[in-house]
Amino acid sequence: QRQEKIRNFSIIAHIDHGKSTLADRILEHTSALTQREMQDQMLDAMDLERERGITIKLNAVQLTYTAKDGEEYIFHLIDTPGHVDFTYEVSRSLAACEGALLIVDAAQGVEAQTLANVYLALDNDLEIIPVVNKIDLPSAEPDRVLQEVEDVIGLPKETAIPASAKNNIGIEDILEAVVDQVPPPPGDPQAPLQAMIFDSLYDPYRGVIVYFRVVEGGIRPGDKIRMMATEKDFEVQELGVFTPNPEARDELTVGDVGFLTASIKNVGDSRVGDTITHANRPAPEMLPGYKRMNPMVFCGLYPVDTNNYTGLREALEKLELNDSSLQYEPETSQALGFGFRCGFLGLLHMEIIQERIEREFNIELITTAPSVIYSVHLSEGETIYIDNPASMPEQQKISSVEEPFVRAEIMVPNDFVGPVMELCQKKRGVYSDMQYLDDKRVTIVYEIPLAEIVYDFFDTLKSSTKGYASFDYEMIGYRESSLVKMDILLNGDRIDALSVIVHRDSAYYRGKAIVEKLKELIPRQQFEVPVQASIGQKIIARSTIKAMRKNVLSKCYGGDVSRKRKLLEKQKEGKQRMKSVGNVEVPQEAFMSVLSMD
Ligand code: GDP
Ligand code: MG
């Protein structure tokens, strides 16, 4: 029976441990692709991904493998994004599998994302097959790493497969392990259709392409389908699988992973995590785990060159088609001019969007520091929501301010409980729970203001746990906090793009840190520039950027012309990311200085 021959699995790994390379090897061993068709790192679609080494969009390919038992198996290899900002997507794509290959670099050993991914895989009840990769490296220590797999992850070291994705060692063993250890998909082909969407992608010619896995029932071209969360109906046009080239199919049934198109105009109509069913024979309920992703982090995006405002709007419109979690609306800043306030799922999401705008649309950006949404109760009784610190009303008009809190779950090996608790306390966290998973690992739960996480929580967590911590958070609602707006003044002028909302207790200390940082970042000008931090009318910190001593060019007088030209060019380069604010030249980094905590 066909269903018995299906194996659905993902590859999970810490960045650079060799996930893409192994995926390529598996493709070579199983698909009919010729060498020429087989370009390196098939599964990573976008350039940006390739450079950053992270996978943003999920992919699924169908492969056929003839095992040593002589039988032909159908493999669905489902790619997962690698970063904590995409935890939700990782989780969805793992839910489309029964097993996972866990890659650990034989020289590096178990690292942060290795553990984070293991925890996600365990949450989804996956069979985990550990692979110790890069055994060809002279610096490889396979024995130490095998022991680590047993001690830190808790998987018996005998089950781990030594491999080199680069030198083609151990690939057959891995494929056989998938056949033997990953269970075939459960599910009833006669039941009402339930298919889980784990990715969707906008294509200008075909509309949205939906990637899904059939969990119950079956689906055919021409079927009237319903997206259960959005309650929108469509008619299936194309149906197929990626091998990795798209191939049409007459039917996809239990355990199959494929794609469909149905004249869907908007990615928002087929959200990741939603369940597809039939309009005329709907499933009684959705598959578990659907939750809508709302942006949690906001910042202003402004073109360095004001002529690029329209271009920036077009770039955001285009990106939004493929990314239903991206939000934006026009915003004006006295300091920066016309731009957009944009909402993102997290900091990485924010960075990726910025980078894509600069690279794919060639627009240089100034970005303001990220902020969360505050709920502000005015003395007059009204409640307003503020996603830009600059628009916080005056203190006298406010009766109270609430900020979003998250429930942060941090998993670490036992040794790091101390540093993690210390960090959480420092970030205004409220202790909630601690549970030992076994004698090696512990889950620590804190309730923490989202704003504290937006700053440098993740980086600090990583460095204070040698990278071993895994971290996930979910919104739990708004709570009152003692928050105030702090303004930054350059040369006596309030710079709206630098305003920040801080906790009253840390205002003085944050103000001092920011002014010092700005003094460092803003280059000397022709005149002295005072930098001040204020709350209301009260100056709480100040520093001074001294005036430039003399024109650098004067050094070149009489000297050779080419040297002078070089110097000018260099200055121009340095200026690219400068924005004139009033009469002060401010570099991009300065707008992020409010993030400086030390
Ligand atoms: P990913 O970030 O997990 O997808 O990792 P990649 O597959 O992109 O690999 C990261 C780097 O490790 C690349 O430079 C690969 O060529 C290299 N690499 C992957 N597998 C092996 C291996 O088995 N041996 C060696 N020596 N290098 C490898
Ligand atoms: Mg990769």
TrEMBL record:
Membrane topology: Peripheral membrane protein
Recorded name of the encoding gene: lepA
Known catalytic reactions: GTP + H2O = GDP + phosphate + H(+)
Membrane-traversing stretches: none
GO MF: GTP binding; GTPase activity; ribosome binding; translation elongation factor activity
EC number(s) from the headed UniProt entry: 3.6.5.n1
Main location: membrane
Positions contributing to GTP binding: 16-21, 133-136
Name of the protein in its database record: Elongation factor 4
SMART domains, per database record: EFG_C
Location of the protein in the cell: Cell membrane
Record flagged with keyword Kinase: no
Keywords recorded for this protein, A-Z: Cell membrane, GTP-binding, Hydrolase, Membrane, Nucleotide-binding, Protein biosynthesis
